[in-house]
Amino acid sequence: MAADLTVDPAITDANHTDEIVFRRSEYLGGMAIAILAMIDHQN
């Protein structure tokens, strides 16, 4: 999983790096919402 979080060192454009990090944070946020909804549904 650590390799999935590594940004390609060949990328030299800060905008491209920002886009990658933003997409990953959106994905993690979506997963957190889904997990919290499943926990809430169980209670």
Structural notes for this entry:
The protein is mainly alpha-helical and 43 residues long. Helices cover 77% and strands 0% of the residues. It has 2 helices and no strands. It starts with a helix and ends with a helix.
* Cα radius of gyration in angstroms: 15 Å
Report the structural category. mainly alpha
Apparent shape: elongated
Number of helices: 2
Q: Return the string of H and E elements.
A: HH
Which parts are unreliable, with pLDDT below 50 for 5 consecutive residues or more?
A: none
β-strand amount? under 5%
Tally of DSSP β-strands: 0
Could you give a short account of the major beta sheet?
A: none
What percent of the residues sit in helical stretches (DSSP H or I)?
Answer: over 70%
**How far do the termini sit from each other?**
30 Å
Average residue pLDDT: 84
Which secondary structure elements does this structure contain, and how are they paired or packed?
Blueprint: H1 2-5, H2 14-42
What labels describe this entry?
2 helices, 43 residues, elongated, mainly alpha
What's the quick description here?
By secondary structure, this protein is mostly helical.
